[in-house]
Design goal:
Length: about 210
């Protein structure tokens, strides 16, 4: 077989990666902003400036929402306001509102505990976005998968078998490595790739 198959799944090409990345980063930002806000609000209460702190937070959130709306309406360049930074900012507003609602609505230790759980949840979401992110090239002639971001390569001669699970428009490709001379071979055991890449890898491995 000759030729190559290239693919790219990141925040610029995959909606699922983009949403998960924005949700994770946004939740972290929301937690930090709320902690800082709580400190400033408490301090401002001693000098009678709580309304100023609240107004500043509302203005910042409103400015971000307006910028995002103008971008989607085509008034601003898409790369300026519709990129990962604004996505994370919008996610932070939503996450901040949810965390605040938990603390105020549920109240007590339970509400604070649920709000605190947003941090490990954000980390889990970021790990998920990293797992779904994949960029590389399958060289059909050399029978090698070249990975980018981070750089790496997988020699299909070292792959004993594969299995594929298809979810929507992507495929989770599981790789079973050989152990030449009992040596452990470094490399990813699972890759998220387009279905055509998974099918091509299966055919190359099964043809040997």
């Amino acid at each position: 077989m000759e030729g190559t198959i290239k693919w790219r799944r990141d925040v610029s090409t995959s909606r699922s990666v983009r949403l998960l990345r924005a949700a994770g980063v946004g939740t972290f930002l929301a937690a930090i902003v709320l902690i800082v806000f709580a400190r400033l609000f408490s301090f401002a209460g001693e000098v009678g400036g709580q309304s100023v702190v609240v107004a500043a937070l509302v203005v910042a959130a409103g400015t971000l929402l307006v910028a995002a709306g103008l971008s989607r309406a085509g008034v601003l360049p898409a790369g300026v306001a519709a990129g990962p930074v604004v996505d994370a900012g919008l996610a932070a507003i939503v996450a901040g509102a949810l965390i605040f609602a938990l603390v105020r609505g549920v109240g007590g230790g339970v509400g604070n505990l649920l709000a605190a759980l947003s941090i490990p949840l954000a980390m889990f979401v970021l790990v998920g976005s990293s797992f779904l992110q994949s960029t590389g090239t399958l060289d059909l002639e050399e029978e090698v998968i070249y990975l980018h971001e981070p750089e790496g390569s997988i020699d299909l001669d070292l792959i004993l078998g594969t299995s594929v699970r298809r979810i929507g428009g992507v495929a989770i490709l599981r790789l079973e490595y050989a152990r030449p001379d009992g040596r452990y071979v470094q490399g990813p055991r699972r890759l998220v790739v387009p279905p055509e890449v998974a099918t091509a890898v299966e055919r190359l491995v099964d043809s040997r």
